[in-house]
Write a structure and sequence with these properties.
Elements lengths: L7 H13 L7 H14 L1 H20 L4 H5 L5 H13 L4 H24 L7 H16 L16 H10 L7 H14 L1 H20 L4 H5 L5 H13 L4 H16 L10 H26 L1
Helix pairs in contact: 1-2, 1-3, 1-5, 2-3, 2-9, 3-5, 3-6, 5-6, 5-7, 6-7, 8-9, 8-10, 8-12, 9-10, 10-12, 10-13, 12-13, 12-14, 13-14
Length: about 290
């Protein structure tokens, strides 16, 4: 797309690609399925995802960040997650909406900085940082929090796996998870495969570890493993690396409540970074051994 040819339809596709990139899909159709899945569970958060993606994308455009990256939705997905997450934790009063817009814009700037200065994928780290700051600010301003969802525990395994996929965008809904999976499948079946495997790994390890059944049932221990498996499968063709990263994310998820921060997608990012670091260390030691 040339700069002078961007019309409303073009921008709409870019915004939807931003939503699709939450799960590594450069596809407006995938983004549309993600928004539909969100709408089945929460119209408020579906709007938050679209508006967040639009704000992040337009911020990147206004600041003249790389045009190709903008069109691929790479400045929209962290902002889309900000739009969902803040509205998940806090009620949509005026101050919450203002902070959400500012945080979505800030996430695009952080994304650009990380893409320029990190030698490894930043993944959703910009979303995590900006959302932690936004939520801390809202607590200081006394913004009203959303009530906690009702606890469930007796959920069949297929539904629990679907919930893990849905929880990538803070939804405890098997229908939402299925729509997310269909959206991924339409773009790349391998990514859909690893989404299911990653979520299943999270469920199985959390059960083995005797983690709280109510949290397992709604996907709390499997959404980060979903993302980790998908990310490492894309990082390098491998069967082992996605499994290792997915498993590691469960242990990191268990640790997060101890530090008093919202978990968000931090276990996915940390587990993926640690796995990538291990790959580079293995390569470095292999080179040293070869030189001997």
């Amino acid at each position: 797309m040339e700069e002078d040819q961007l019309n409303l339809r073009d921008w709409g596709r870019i915004f939807l690609r931003g939503v699709g990139q939450v799960m590594f899909q450069e596809s407006a159709w995938t983004g549309a399925f993600f928004v539909a899945g969100l709408a089945c569970s929460s119209l408020k958060m579906a709007a938050g995802a679209l508006i967040g993606s639009a704000v992040g994308t337009l911020t990147a455009y206004a600041l003249r960040f790389p045009r190709r990256d903008i069109e691929r939705g790479l400045y929209g997905f962290n902002a889309a997650l900000v739009g969902v997450a803040v509205l998940f934790y806090d009620r949509p009063v005026a101050v919450t909406l203002l902070v959400t817009l500012l945080a979505a814009a800030a996430s695009a700037v952080v994304t650009h900085a990380m893409r320029r200065h990190l030698s490894f994928p930043s993944y959703t780290a910009p979303f995590i940082v900006t959302t932690w700051v936004a939520l801390a600010a809202l607590r200081q301003m006394g913004a009203p929090a959303e009530p906690a969802a009702a606890a469930v525990s007796d959920v069949p395994l297929p539904m629990t796996i679907a919930d893990g996929i849905a929880q990538v965008m803070f939804q405890a809904s098997a229908i939402t998870g299925v729509l997310f999976l269909i959206g991924i499948l339409l773009n790349e079946w391998r990514d859909a495969f690893w989404a299911v495997i990653g979520s299943a790994i999270g469920v199985l390890i959390a059960n083995w570890r005797n983690d709280p059944a109510t949290s397992i049932a709604v996907g709390i221990y499997s959404y980060n493993s979903t993302l980790a498996a998908m990310a490492l499968a894309l990082y390098r063709p491998s069967i082992l690396l996605p499994i290792v990263a997915a498993a590691l994310s469960v242990f990191v998820t268990e640790w997060f409540p101890l530090i008093g921060l919202e978990t968000l997608t931090a276990p996915f990012v940390l587990a993926s970074w640690l796995t990538i670091a291990a790959v580079h260390l293995e390569r470095a030691f292999g080179l040293c051994a070869h030189r001997r």
